[in-house]
């Protein structure tokens, strides 16, 4: 709650978090839901960031000239409370809300620095000793808070590196699989190309010799018909006539081989001796 001499300089709503004092790297929620955040000003004395939930204080952070608010994501920011020796974080519902809070935070720090630069009234020895003691405590708290922040960032970077290494191994395995599949496809294409060339050769031979084979078979048939007619005339001829010998008859019905056809020797082979 605001003191009698304090006034509200700025208000917003956000979820409140605090760094885990045990692990120094995990965030612990201070509020169950988004709550009202008030920036209180006691003129020429101090700025405080306060909040409460269900009547219970959940945030009371006094700003100093060295306070810094850091935006770590579009809707999340944090700052170190040197006096409390901890780190607070705020999660906003919109990036614009975070931006307005950060601007007010930085404006408050500038004003605090201006107060510190003004000449102060002389203090007696007891007040100076008390101030020096408070300053030493603040310095130790600030160092402890900075150490906690550094540890947190170090753990986060280490986790990010481990995740990156795991992804790199997965990509390496996928690349090896792709290379293996590519090699198999290449071999299949080469075999297919070889088969196509063989088919082309066979088709070319058929086109080159197919017509000649058909023409030759026609001539063979004609020649055999003529031989048959010759034998018929011999059988029906005059007694004592000399006809073809048995080897000659056998020769008339000898079918040519493929080699004979391709060499063009069909007519001579079938009709020789007619």
What is this structure, in a nutshell?
It is built from 5 helices and 8 strands; from the N terminus they run E-E-E-E-E-E-E-E-H-H-H-H-H.
Q: Let me know the number of strands.
A: 8
Query: What number is the mean pLDDT?
Result: 77
Give the fraction of residues assigned to helices.
Answer: 55-70%
Secondary-structure element series: EEEEEEEEHHHHH
Helix vs. strand class: alpha+beta
Shape: rod-shaped
Please give the alpha-carbon distance between the first and last residues.
135 Å
Low-pLDDT segments, ≥5 res: 249-258, 260-274
Largest sheet: 8 strands, antiparallel
> What is the percentage of strand-forming residues?
15-25%
Q: Give the radius of gyration.
A: 53 Å
Number of helices: 5
Give the helices and strands, then pairings.
Blueprint: E1 7-19, E2 27-29, E3 35-42, E4 46-53, E5 56-62, E6 69-73, E7 76-81, E8 86-91, H1 95-117, H2 125-236, H3 246-252, H4 258-263, H5 266-271
Antiparallel strand pairs: 1-2, 1-3, 1-8, 3-4, 4-5, 6-7, 7-8
Describe this structure in words.
Mean pLDDT is 77; it is low at 249-258 and 260-274. This protein has five helices and eight strands, in the order ββββββββααααα. The chain is rod-shaped and about 160 Å long. The protein starts with 6 loop residues before the first strand and ends with a helix. It is an alpha+beta fold and 274 residues long. Strands 1, 2, 3, 4, 5, 6, 7 and 8 form an eight-stranded antiparallel beta sheet that branches. It has helices spanning 95-117, 125-236, 246-252, 258-263, 266-271; strands spanning 7-19, 27-29, 35-42, 46-53, 56-62, 69-73, 76-81, 86-91. 56% of the residues lie in helices and 20% in strands.
């Amino acid at each position: 709650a605001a003191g009698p001499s304090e006034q509200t300089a700025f208000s917003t709503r956000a979820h409140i978090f605090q760094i885990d004092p045990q692990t120094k790297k995990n965030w612990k929620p201070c509020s169950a839901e988004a709550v009202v955040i008030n920036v209180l000003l006691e003129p020429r004395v101090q700025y405080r960031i306060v909040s409460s939930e269900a009547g219970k204080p959940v945030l009371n952070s006094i700003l100093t000239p060295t306070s810094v608010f850091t935006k770590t994501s579009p809707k999340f920011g944090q700052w170190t409370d040197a006096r409390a020796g901890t780190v607070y974080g705020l999660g906003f519902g919109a990036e614009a809300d975070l931006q307005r809070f950060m601007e007010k935070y930085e404006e408050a720090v500038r004003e605090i620095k201006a107060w510190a630069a003004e000449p102060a009234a002389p203090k007696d020895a007891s007040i100076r000793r008390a101030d020096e003691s408070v300053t030493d405590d603040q310095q130790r708290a600030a160092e402890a808070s900075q150490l906690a922040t550094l540890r947190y960032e170090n753990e986060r970077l280490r986790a990010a590196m481990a995740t990156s290494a795991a992804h790199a191994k997965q990509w390496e395995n996928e690349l090896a699989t792709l290379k293996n599949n590519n090699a198999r496809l290449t071999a299949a294409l080469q075999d297919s190309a070889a088969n196509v060339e063989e088919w082309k050769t066979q088709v070319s031979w058929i086109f080159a010799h197919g017509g000649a084979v058909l023409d030759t078979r026609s001539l063979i048939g004609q020649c055999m018909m003529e031989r048959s007619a010759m034998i018929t005339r011999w059988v029906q001829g005059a007694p004592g006539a000399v006809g073809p010998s048995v080897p000659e008859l056998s020769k008339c019905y000898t079918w040519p081989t493929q080699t004979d056809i391709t060499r063009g020797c069909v007519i001579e082979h079938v009709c020789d001796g007619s």
